[in-house]
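Annex B.
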Amino acid sequence: MNPMSGVNITHSPYACIACRNSKRRCDKTYPRCTLCTQRQILCDYPYRRKERTRQMANPEADESMPIGSNTPLFNTPTERLRPGRYGISDPNISDTLASRFLDPDFFYHLQLETPKVDIAIPKMVSDYVGTIVDIQNISNTYFDSIHTWMPILSKKQFSSNLPNYLTHRKSELCLLVICMKLSSSLTTTAKTVLYRTAKQFYFEMESSGILSVTVLQAGVLIAIYELGHAIYPAAFLSVGQCARYAAALEIEKSITSQILDKLPWNEVEEQRRVWWSIIILDR
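Zn(2)-C6 fungal-type domain-containing protein: predicted structure tokens.
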């Protein structure tokens, strides 16, 4: 009981998602913790124990699922992953993304974070990606070919992040994998169905407001494919599009910015890899 307001205060057994991501000490006040209330940001708590147990009973959501499994990643023709309480049409997401883009200094001063957005994966994309074994084979082919002369992705980082992608960021993983497959494919026809599918899915991911290094890496792989097959002016436009997307992520500051000193070295290295690749392609 709050003696000032006379309102019963309940507490969650878990810290809220915003405090977990920011590594802040959460007071677990339900429905909104004190820190999120002060910063005027969305406060959401994880599922209750029964719901988490029921969710983990699904083998697709199990982070400990073996990489060598042949279990399909998608059961329906078009699956919306982790819909949660946020949708792409949610006005709160639109306002947050606009604030981050139009006034980034004020956004970071308040220590705000953009909501995690995931979109539906088309059936054609899921067919190209396949099972976990197919993802492993596609990545092996990529790292044995394209990676040897333009190491945009970190092989170690990709392998270590794969379980997390399979559980929480499947749409970004599918986009990256299909672009890895595209860039390492051997074909005599430039504008294949695989190329058109990857290009369309990248456009949908970008239009949804997702800002991540993974999406940017996929865009660079598309630009490499277009340059290699002389698909103009698409190649010229794709490189410029990647540069603008990187500027929105402030990756161009990864070379000199002191803010990145707070990030793990492997994340900084990943940002520098993709930024230098954009510079090389632009030249």
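The chain has 14 helices and two strands. Strands lie at 10-11, 29-30. Further annotation is deferred to the next reporting cycle.
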